[in-house]
Amino acid sequence: MYRVFEALDELGAIVEEARGVPMTAGCVVPRGDVLELIDDIKDAIPGELDDAQDVLDARDGLLREAKEHSDSMVSTATTEADSMLNHARAEADRLLADAKAQADRMVAEARQHSEQMVGKAREEAERLAATARREYEANTGRAKTEADRLIESGNLAYERAVQEGIKEQQRLVSQTEIVSTATSEATRLIDSAHAEADRLRGECDIYVDSKLAEFEDFLNGTLRSVGRGRHQLRTAAGTHDYAAR
Questions:
Q1: Model pTM score
Q2: Which PANTHER family match (predicted)?
């Protein structure tokens, strides 16, 4: 190996001492000496360097093969990944479509059930309102009939008392000796008739007020029933909305 460096030093000295070629950067060197030094360098190079070069060449081949294999594997892996990604995307789209269809179906069922409950509640409210209206009209009719009867009875009693008072007054007037007494009695009878009429009117008012109070209680009970029905409807609608979400 020492001879290699020695021959290289000699070769460098020959080049440095060589005669230059005018007008150029070249020089004239003794061909025989240079070739002899090159042969010496070749002979002095150890055989392990050739083996090392062979190893390097083999390494380069292995690296090329490894790179080609790696590129092939990467390409195959990329293709498989794209296929798996496309399959996963198609499966996700299918699952999403199924979920959307299921959600739409549940929403439609919930809406249909809600509409049915609303319809039933509306029918029940209308039925209760109709019942309340009929009951109100019946109670009002009975109260009016009874009031009319009491007023008519009071009027008849008043008229009868007035007529009796007038007759009694006329009878007493014909008797001069008891004119003052007759006048007092007639006045009393008329006052009594007025009092009786007032009493009958008072009873009529009390009766009408009691009937109206009964109807008011009935209406309050009906309103509470309607309120409970509306509360149950809102509760059921809230439950269905929560289940749909």
A1: 0.31
A2: SLR0848 PROTEIN
